[in-house]
Amino acid sequence: MVTSDQALHIDTHQQPDPNTMLSRPRFTRHRTLTLLHCALLSACAAVGPSYQAPATEQLLTSSQWQAVQPHGGDTAALLTWWKRLQDSSLNALLQSAETNNPSLQKAAANITLARANVSTTRASYQPTLTGSASARRNNTPGSAQSTATGGLDASWELDLFGSVRRSAESADALLQARQADWHDARVSLAAEVATDYVTYRACQLTLLASQADARSSQTTADITRRSLQAGMTARADAALAVASAASASATAIAQQAECDVTVKALVALTGLAEPALRQQLDSQPAQLPTLTGFQINTLPVDLLSQRPDLVSTERALAAASAQIGVAEADRYPRLSLLGSLSATRTDGVNTTPWSFGPSLSLPLLNGGAKRAAVDSAQAAYDLALANYQQAVRTAVQEVEQSLVRQMSAVRRTADVQRSATGYRSYANAVEANWRAGGDSLLNLELARRNAIAAEQSLITVQRDQLLYGIALYKAVGGGWTVSTGDTP
After folding, report:
1. Residue 32 forms part of a structural domain
2. If pLDDT is split at 50, 70 and 90, which confidence band does 267 have?
3. How many CA atoms, within 13 angstroms, populate the side-chain half-sphere of residue 475?
4. How many domains does the chain have?
5. Digit-coded pLDDT (tens) for 100-116
6. Range of the domain at 255
7. Annotated region Disordered: where (predicted)?
8. Is residue 289 part of a domain?
9. What is the CB-side half-sphere exposure of residue 451 using CA atoms within 13 A?
10. 308-329 and 163-229 helices, crossing angle to 10°
């Protein structure tokens, strides 16, 4: 009795009877050739959908996106991003990160696994052949016997309905996805190292300003204390000066801690020992990298299709489509060619039995499990399609936001520069007037705080120009292209 999860198995290969072979040679050959002919004709078609990449042009060029346009934009400026920074320390850190970072190592290992999966899948196209051999000698009272045997077993499943071909398509697509993941890891790593490096340089500049303010505040407190002792300053002014000096000192200490935290992040990213990393950072003065000639108002939408994460998501979609064909092919019959040959020699007597013939497996009753497998594969494809569409929207959003933020930072820079210059000039004038006895300590502290805030705003907006440029670099895939073949 055949259960719902069993298949009818017809095995026509057996050791032929010599008499039967002599009487029916033409019928046997005709039957075998007919089966082979049918198999080869059936193998020309693979069940399941033929994959086509989804059309995303309408989504990418939708009127809801304003900054990204389907034409214009100087992409050459974007693709040479790191060269335009002209910072040897940053280049050295990027190189160290790429040669010694676990995220890239994991991505490379995933590529190796995917390649092995491709080789395993494609091996199903080929017939298998297994050999065996043994020898023994039996010694019983009154007799001794020597026996040697050798044999070959062969099998080959014909890909009637494209199950193996669809599996190979899926494996190839997943390999391409893992290669794109490796490029995405490189882009993300470079952007993260650059972000932390720029943040550290900005932190250094802020720290220098904070330390200068702490020294100035301490000098003011010392002058005020001496003036109080001479009876020329009110006790309230002396207390204000001491409090201001303590506050400035605490700010400088906190800023130093922020810089040290950023160094720890760079150590984790680059894999360098902290002393070596600090030596590399100290090889250049505390200043932000100079970015010249980098201003992009629009970007061609085609550039977004080069994002490695989008390539990976699209390739995962292709793999899911192929799996529908694999599940569908499992609902159809399977045909295999089986054969065996053995040779036995016993005390000089040779025997060589052999067998060859087709084996057909027909799925009859399975309780709807195979139909459910097709539905599951289709649902997995729909999920992958939704993921791809969401990834496209996210990519456009990231580019839009990076463009808006960078352009805003560029437009703010000139105003913030004038503000910092004006507040510093005013603070210097108030301090000179205070030293001459013509202004109050309260006015001096207010002028100093305004000057410090303006200087920090200038450092921040200069830092933001670089950080938003890095974000834009990452948002469009870092200049990577699909044709790049430098994966590990």
Report:
1. no
2. very high
3. 25
4. 1
5. 889 889 998 999 999 99
6. 47-123+159-331+370-475
7. 1-24, 124-150
8. yes
9. 22
10. 150
